[in-house]
Design brief:
globular, two-stranded antiparallel ribbon, alpha+beta, single chain, 60s Ribosomal Protein L30, Chain: A, five-stranded mixed β-sheet, 153 residues
Length: 153
């Protein structure tokens, strides 16, 4: 059990761009792998607010952390949804995710990958990367996700 833990999400406003509208385009260019769970390229044009969610994890407000990677993944995506909504965004606004998994070479990450595919609606797959790490700041955590989203001002 973790006590007295403080987790901070960061919300930043992007500099104003020249267009009055924001246009997010997600695609997999010809010649690159055509993944089903994420987009190879996301471009953002227009005026909007960039939302950065740092270090979302499977952690309850009371400090409880589920024991399994699968349970932490489920809770992580619930926490991401809460943080996005608090910033005025939805899963459709996410443009990038970075997934950190502890001991990636020793675990089966398929449940995490499936949760990613299930979280994002068709046509709204962000660019993505998975990084294997030896540990995270909280030893009980098995994964953590950074998220970037963009919304209209």
């Amino acid at each position: 059990m973790i006590k007295n833990l403080i987790i901070i999400g960061v919300i930043m406003t992007a500099p104003s761009l020249t267009n009055a509208e924001i246009n997010i385009k997600r695609w997999n260019p010809e010649g690159l792998d055509q993944p089903i769970g994420y987009s190879q390229v996301v471009t953002v044009e227009g005026q909007g607010k960039l939302i950065l969610l740092g270090g979302k994890a499977g952690l309850k407000p009371d400090g409880f952390i589920p024991e399994t990677l699968e349970a932490q993944s489920k809770l992580t995506w619930e926490n991401i949804e809460l943080a996005l909504n608090a910033a005025g965004a939805t899963r459709e606004d996410v443009i990038e995710i970075q997934i950190y998994i502890v001991d990636l070479d020793k675990v089966n990450p398929e449940k995490v990958y499936q949760d990613v595919r299930n979280f994002f609606p068709t046509g709204h797959k962000p660019v993505s990367m998975v990084i294997g790490v030896s540990a995270l700041a909280i030893p009980e955590l098995k994964m953590e996700i950074n998220v970037r989203a963009m919304i209209k001002n």
